[in-house]
Design brief:
With 48 residues, the chain is mostly helical. The protein has one domain. The chain has 4 helices and no strands. Helix 1 crosses helix 3 and helix 2 packs antiparallel against helix 3. The radius of gyration is 10 Å and the shape is elongated. 4% of the residues are buried.
Length: 48
């Protein structure tokens, strides 16, 4: 499951993907939270 979620995040690394990605994280933030930080550390805290 973690592998599938990680691959999805990699695909949506753009600005538009940030919105859609945030929704997915909210649903599976328990197991996706750690993967997101390693995937896009600046995307989470670098948002305007």
């Amino acid at each position: 499951m973690e592998t599938a979620g990680n691959g999805t995040v990699v695909m949506v690394t753009g600005a538009a993907g940030n919105l859609g990605r945030a929704v997915v994280h909210g649903l599976v933030a328990n197991r996706d939270a750690p993967a997101v930080r390693l995937d896009t550390p600046a995307g989470e805290g670098g948002q305007p």
